[in-house]
Specification:
- The chain has 468 residues and is mainly α.
- It contains 16 helices and no strands.
- It has helices spanning 2-11, 14-45, 50-78, 80-101, 105-122, 124-127, 137-168, 174-189, 267-274, 277-293, 296-308, 313-333, 343-361, 366-394, 400-452, 454-464.
């Protein structure tokens, strides 16, 4: 597995390798903080119950949505380099607050909201930055898979480090580790140079001159040059994007024809999603699928404590197991032919994620939960790069930040709704019963979408894979 990871890293262009390192360093810190610093502190240090956990997680998710919209709009207005600079400032400020004031419930609640905002602001790094490096479908899949691989290595390493820190120091000490990771990420950020940028009229992105790219450029691997039956590189997008502009030379005009630099509002991003059949379908599919998955957040730490009856460190160990599965899943994505990078494939994987959830929460045995986490991670590791690639293939780069913010909103909104019901359901069904119900919903919704929306799915997939 290590040889495969290294081979994929060597195949990336230098700017893409810098992006991968930026994502990895910050995500390791995030993973150490979320489970140990927030949920671990609340559940074990403060003896939190369902209601208090649900409130904290709901606030975190709500402000993650706010941060995602803010980050997406700022990215579209100012470009990835300035976006990343502001991200570093925001995350260091949140870390400092949580270290100094995170010892009581009110401060932890406020800190969780701030952490949620910073996580949302961080979203475009993996979801949108690749679109600034290439317009080639094969190269996009490679970059997104690499980002998913290192993210899931972070899921392994972060909780392990967080668990180790929590075993010798207060749980909120993990925020100091996160701050160190953010500072280190500045080093590869210096080498991240966008290849595709927007010539904004009247102000806007300042990431450098716009590049005229052709299919398979921007450091794409040799396989990008193989000709397909239509004369274009096999598996690549058409040289014309949805708006008629060359796919590699992004126009500075948004969907409504206004210069991107003249608008920093979310209106263009909302229009970009809901005027595009593929993006709107991805939005609603994500919303419905995460409608059940959101119930896991406020109850998961209680499941460890009350059902599995294990200590706080086990939250780190089992999360690490999920990360191992996710790394394997991200590697499997690299073997998926580009013609299978489709909405249909994504929905099948979302169903697989639900099955993993059922195994994870289905018994009181920690070893079975371990297997479930690996299965859950395997599905999730394939879903993330596939979903990001689909959005990047269908969205124009001028609104990619705000379009992905809407995707984050759909998933987060689907996750917030169960938070309102989880205390009531847990009182009636118990923690494990509620988690089982949520897992059934996670597995069922993609199947329902496939059954009742198969014709629309076929039309969407045919737009980018006409010969499939």
């Amino acid at each position: 597995m290590l040889d495969r990871i290294l081979a994929e890293a060597r195949a990336l262009a230098p700017a893409a390798r810098c992006l991968v390192l930026m994502r990895f360093l910050i995500y390791v810190g995030i993973q150490s903080c979320y489970f140990i610093g927030v949920l671990g502190t609340l559940t074990y240090s403060m003896d939190g119950e369902v209601a208090s956990t649900a409130v904290v997680v709901a606030l975190l998710n709500l402000f993650q949505i706010v941060g995602s919209f803010a980050g997406g709009a700022y990215l579209d207005a100012r470009g990835p380099r300035l976006h990343f600079a502001l991200l570093v400032i925001v995350m260091l400020a949140v870390d400092a607050f949580c270290i100094v004031f995170g010892g009581d419930m009110s401060a932890l609640t406020f800190g969780a909201a701030c952490l949620g905002f910073s996580l949302g602001f961080f979203e475009p790094v993996s979801r949108s930055y690749p679109a600034y490096l290439t317009a080639d479908a094969i190269e996009l899949k490679r970059i997104n898979s690499a980002l998913s691989i290192v993210s899931n290595i972070g899921v392994v390493v972060g909780p392990l480090i967080g668990g180790a820190i929590a075993s010798v120091a207060p749980t909120r000490a993990v925020f100091a580790f996160m701050g160190a990771c953010v500072v280190l990420a500045v080093i590869p950020a210096a080498g991240f140079r966008p290849v595709i940028s927007v010539r904004a009229e009247g102000g806007g992105q300042d990431a450098g001159p716009a590049a005229e790219l052709t299919e398979g450029s921007a450091g794409a691997g040799a396989d990008c040059c193989a000709a397909g039956p239509n004369g274009r590189p096999a598996g690549s997008r058409s040289s014309l994007g949805p708006s008629g502009h060359p796919a590699g030379s992004r126009s500075s005009l948004g969907p409504s024809g206004h210069p991107v630099g003249s608008r920093s509002s979310l209106i263009e991003g909302i229009r970009a999603v809901f005027s595009n059949a593929a993006l709107s379908f991805l939005f609603w599919a994500g919303f419905l699928s995460y409608l059940g998955y959101g119930a896991l957040d406020p109850l998961e730490s209680l499941y460890y404590r009350d059902v599995l009856q294990v200590g706080v460190a086990w939250m780190g160990w089992l999360s690490a197991a999920s990360g191992v599965g996710a790394v394997a899943g991200a590697l499997l994505v690299l073997r998926i032919p580009v013609r299978r990078v489709t909405v249909q494939t994504l929905l099948v994987l979302l169903c697989g994620m639900g099955i993993g959830c059922l195994v994870y929460v289905g018994t009181p045995y920690v070893l079975v939960a371990l297997v479930g986490q690996v299965l859950l991670g395997l599905a999730f590791g394939m879903i993330v790069p596939l979903q990001n690639t689909l959005v990047q293939m269908h969205a124009e780069v001028e609104v990619i930040g705000r379009a992905n913010s809407m995707m984050t909103f759909g998933a987060s909104a689907g996750g917030v709704i169960p938070l309102l019901m989880s205390p009531w359901l847990a009182a009636m069904l118990g923690v494990q019963g509620t988690l089982l119900l949520a897992s059934v919903l996670v597995a069922s919704f993609p199947v329902l979408v496939l059954v009742f929306g198969h014709q629309r799915i076929a039309r969407i997939d045919a737009e980018v894979h006409p010969a499939a």
